[in-house]
Amino acid sequence: MYTAATESLIKQAREIKEEELQRHCGRIFKLLHSKDVSGDTVDSLQRLNLIVSATKYATELPSDLVLKLQTVLRSSSCPEQLQVLSSSILRDSFPPSVHSLCSDLSPDSRTFSHVASVVLAQAGSQEDVMPLCHHLLKSLDSRLSDGQISRHALPLLSKMITVYPEILTDDQVNVVSRKLVDWLRYASMQQGASMSSGGFFSGPRTRQPAPLTEVDGVVTGDFFTVLCVGQSYTEDQWMNMYTFSMIKSWLLTYDTDGTTNTESALLIKAQGIHSQHQDDRSEVDSSVTSMVSATSSSTRLLPPKERLREKAFEYCQRLIEQSDRKALKKTDTELQKACIVESVSILDVICGEDPSYVYRAFPCIKALYGRLNGDLTYSRALLPIAQFYLNHSEIAAVDSEAVFCQLFSHCPAEQFNEPMLAFEFVQFCLLNASVLQERVTNYRQSFPNLLKFLAWNSSGLIAEFVELLPSLIAPDTAIELLHTILDLPCLAAALDLQQRSACYQAPDRPAWDQQGAKVAACLDAFRQPSCRGLFLYILRPEAGTGDTIDRLKMLHEILADMAESPRVVRCAQVVPVLLHVYFNTVTQRADEKMLNQLLLVLLERSSLLYDIKTFNVEVQKVFSTHLQALCKLHPPLIVDQSREILELTSSPANIYSKEDFYTHVVWVIGEYLSVSYDPRCTVERITSFFECLEAVLFEITQVRQSASPPSFSPRLVTVLMTTLAKLATRSQDLIPRVSLCLSKMRPFARSAPVMTCYSEEDTEEIITRAHELINLLKLPNVAQFVLAPSAGGDGPRWHRDTNASLPQGMKAVSGLLHRHSSSLPT
What we know:
Layout (H helix, E strand, L loop, with lengths): L3 H11 L3 H16 L5 H15 L5 E2 L2 H12 L5 H12 L1 E2 L3 H5 L6 H14 L7 H12 L6 H16 L6 H16 L9 E2 L8 E2 L28 H20 L6 H19 L6 H10 L1 H5 L2 H19 L7 H24 L4 H15 L6 H18 L4 H15 L3 H13 L1 H7 L7 H10 L1 H15 L5 H9 L1 H16 L5 H5 L3 H10 L2 H10 L13 H7 L7 H24 L2 H14 L9 H19 L3 H4 L1 H8 L3 H5 L1 H14 L10 H18 L13 H17 L4 H9 L1 H5 L2 H6 L2 H18 L2 H8 L8 H5 L5 H14 L7
Parallel strand pairs: 1-2
Antiparallel strand pairs: 3-4
Helix pairs in contact: 1-3, 2-3, 2-4, 3-5, 4-5, 5-7, 7-9, 8-9, 9-11, 10-11, 10-15, 11-16, 15-16, 16-18, 17-18, 18-19, 18-20, 19-22, 20-23, 22-23, 22-25, 23-30, 24-30, 24-31, 25-27, 25-30, 30-32, 32-36, 36-38, 37-38, 38-39, 38-42, 38-43, 39-42
């Protein structure tokens, strides 16, 4: 998030008037013509840079200023700060500068880098960057004394092939592959020359090159890699580092050729006879080594792409070996972790392109996994290892079950509070969701652990989990997953308490109490043996221990003081989103048994939710929406769960705690409790539902002088009336009872408590609905046609065919009611 001052500056930049922008551009144009670069010039350019970058649209600048900025950008004598600002402004401005900048590319490495960034940003097609591409390839072959141009060229080339992968011809790909091999495998083994002070009375002198060392201080005995340590580096060593940083994207883009995997394996086997002797030459100077390698018999056996693949494979194996060394500096330890991740990813790409490498790579990967397994500091490195096992374990006939058991059971449970690991872990699951469902048995069972990432990092991972959730739904754990989603805020609170409990030991009561009285009480409960079972369940690592717990209400009471925690509140906000995804997915796969289980969960959990502000209301709205969808999908649910539905609807107390959900339950009763949907809808069953709802309507609409204003909406009253009328049309003996009930609606609506609470429109709606229903019920057959149309009433014929359409029927009803208008109640 930006600070208030930064937000203010961005707002000013976005709202600048055209006249003011033109004046500011004119002022910059004059400042750039002065010989001396002042601080005012830099400040003005910085402001213009903010203006053009504050919106997503390119800003049109005066053409003379654009030409001047291009001149500054291409001038190697200009201060770099001005070049950087000019480059940034031109990238976000209009008219484009691609053609003019490509007309005369500078040989200076720094200037060329800034120009290239503008060209790549503004290029509209591959043809626009062709001059830049030719210049880059030429610079890679050049042997300038400073050598800097090549170092800048590789990152630019990497970005270019990412956007335009077809820009290089096969011959050019081969040329670059040869260069990458030389830089990657045959960099010099001495540190770069460094200048040192010769003392007060003598000038600086050049130190003799010293050998490179490993991260543990031992002198390097093998070829150079990014994990070799020195005070300074030669140009070919820098190129080695740049090559390693781009080799993965290069292999993914161009590592395909006409050589078959079988041919490749034979060539590599022949090459292996010579590799040890040839690699010993890596300590020779890089230029000499490149010539030697170019004439070696092993290299002649492999085409350039295959040779690059082989050298990249050796390089990654060397890095994995180096990562086992004890680094002297913490920064080198972090570099080792990054190199493991990148090396294993590159090996995965190589083995994917040529399966013959799988058998050579697996011993190294298995040894690496054995070394890192159990070390939480290397958890992020386990993800590419798991990816390697997932992609290649079947080819090598290697059992990967233990790898994924470790991955899904320990990482989320112990490092849920690591945001980068959480993001990468979820991305790994998203990338491989279909394969994980088929081949990893404990993937779907591990959703309690995976949801810990979301509970702790809810705002940052909601989009990923919306996409991931369908892959976690399995028939045997779908109901448990629903309960877990509903308990997600409880999980966030429990994880918070777990973290605090680990930080503050029980004897350290002062530090404990500093967390606040409410948190301290929750921490106390968290450590009580009597509550241990509740927290063990909510923090369980995998599914299968039961759909939910009997003492869930007790858990909500224990965690009541955590309900206002920002983390818990944020987590509660994502639950309705996940519920929609869950129901939309599960209703496409569910059978009759699961649909019944889902309805039971809705009825049960509508009253059993963690008491967080607005959380209950939002969840009940989701329940209401999907209750209708479930009953529409399988109307016999009403009869299957008649006992539970009657239990819920018979209690007026449920109206005040969950009115929206209650209203929808009443609606689905009237809509689907019909013999046309289920032959079990006997007169007795319809009568039982009728009597239940009749009693509720009578109780909430009693008119008493001392009665308080109703706390329910008029919508509930109209839905209850309509549902009773629908049921009466299906058992016509009930019509007199519902007519009597409806006749009492006018006194209710005109009573003083109701008039003070409802608007005039609301009371008129109740009275009008009662009158309409009474009049319809005077003609039972017509009432049944209007209130309970056939199941095919949503089909096109029902609305288009004049002989069977609903509008035609309504005209007939209107005529009948008009003739009986004299009998309308007043």
